[in-house]
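Continuing the series of single-chain predictions for the mutant panel. This is the parent chain; the variants come on the following pages.
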Amino acid sequence: MPTERRLYKISQVIHQRQLDIVIGLDHIHDQHNLSAVIRSADAAGFGRIIWTPDFKMTEKVNPEISRGAERWVDLNLYDDLKPELLKLKSQGYKIAATHMARKAVDFRTIDWTKPWVVVFGNEHRGVSDDIVEIADENIFLPMLGFVQSLNISVAAAVTLYEIQRQRQEAGMYDLNASAEQVKDLYNKWNLSEDHIQLNSLITRMTGPMPESDHQDGRENSKFFLKMKEKFLKNK
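Parent structure:
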């Protein structure tokens, strides 16, 4: 059975999830980068990544880097990101591509409180031209030193935390999620396996987080250990 502290944490996370921010990975191939972006997405409160791998044999998520965040973040694979991006645009999302073009804007000037898909490009080639063509905005991270770019996993973390900052200031993390969102995430996260009742999460728990004299033991959870064993077996 989950502790009161763990149940409180799950309640907060499930209501804070910002489902109208999607992270796009355009031909990202490095295992470390993929795993680190998944971890940053979960940490910042975002739950969906769409990904076109760079090779037919896709890299495995490394649980030593992701720290089990793959349980909480949807990772959807596509042979081509463009059709999915166009579909999301038809649903009201705007597309931001991390691409240094003449009309590119500082990523901090964007209003991230709206629904967005943020696309990060290949480690060497950047975002594909066909995705740049349909982007509503090209964004860049200012470089004040001699290097011209950040590692993609670092760039993603910096960008996602600016999105989090704006949304937190707007109070978007303080809202109660719909019952539909709670139920959907409850099923996706297989919380019934943790002996958690759906009804206990429909209403967001309030007050301070219950104190604990010990760590929550996530590193020893069945999910984390199973993913670690699977990764090492296929390595």
